[in-house]
Amino acid sequence: MTKNENHSVWTAIMALVLAMGGASCNSSGRGEAGTAGRSAATAPSASGIGGATSALTSASPLQATGTMDFVTAVPLPLPKTPAYTAAQTTADVANAINILSTAVNVTAGNESGSKGAGTLLTEPLGVPLPRTENSASPLVAAPADSGTAGLAFSTARADLDPAPVNDQYPYRAAGKLFFNIENNSYICSASLIKKGIAVTAAHCVSEFGRRKYYNGWQFVPGYSNGIAPYGAWSVSKAYILPSYYDGTDECAQSGVVCRDDVAVLVLTPKPGTDSQPHYAGEYTGWFAYGWNSEGFTPQGITHVTQLGYPTCLDNGRFMERNDAQGVSSAQFSGNTVAGSLMCGGSSGGPWLINFGKQPQLTGTALGFSPMPNEVIGVTSWGASDTSVKRMGASPFLDTNLPVLVNRACADYPAACN
After folding, report:
1. What CATH number is given to the structural domain containing 331?
2. Domain that holds residue 208
């Protein structure tokens, strides 16, 4: 990018920032997961990646704290694709394992996460009302299961029996997202990637191409059966890319399978016991995040752990976990495709690599991309036929997530520093 182009990008960004009433500031990342130190790593500069078009972001109006119906909220309908045939599955998997397949020529990047203090801030929200279409169907965990797409997966409640995990790191950095569309309350999922920044799906923030934001978002990290162990956190502002907002994004299926179904939310801080403002991540910790095929093999294969609150499982009362092989699919706009039992309500939930408490090495060495608890995508869509058991996630690229995070951190540096 030339000096003049670089200046033009920042001029355009600053015009948008000033129009929104924000301030520009650089931000730096937090230390590695489980550590208290700070890192010199800095979020990528919006002016240095993707060019002028993708560097611009779209921001929601400043949000005022409103009311939320946590009990009757329903899942936002999951964007769905037509049936995924066995032949398509075979082609995707065959291309992925073919050592001669062409690797994407990009440089992967990531930022580390943090464990947080773990201090509880319990709030009762009310147990969700039963969903009649699910009440007659008992939960059946699906180890080594697969649907007609032929993609193997293992989905089960995240909690152990009898020990819950929703208040333990890394699970507690994920949570349930509530928001309003007109006079109705809806559910998605989300996760923290900085102390005051959450990532979710763009379709949980705005309907594709309609140029209108939803409102009233409240994020509940570690939500479990009507209890908010770390409180419910209002959102000050949401950010998506203009291409999703105006409907020009690259999509294999318009508004469903898109390259940039990604959004970030800036949480509103709350006063702590010291009367100073604090963010949710200071208590729960936050995940690392990576982009540009971080964690994928050159053939486009990875292993993911998907977290979320699908209402077809446990009525959305508990966090669910799915483990599966993910494959980067060229025919699906580079989305990661994996088998899963989840459904509506899981939208926006994180897809992570290296999930869990990392062991001490006592006689071996780390593999490539060893960053623990790293989000590399969020739940974007599922299949219209529930027997298919396949879901997808928009890829994190240097032209979407880092750009959004950088803009949010410029507007709200305290949420990132």
Report:
1. 2.40.10.10
2. 3-415
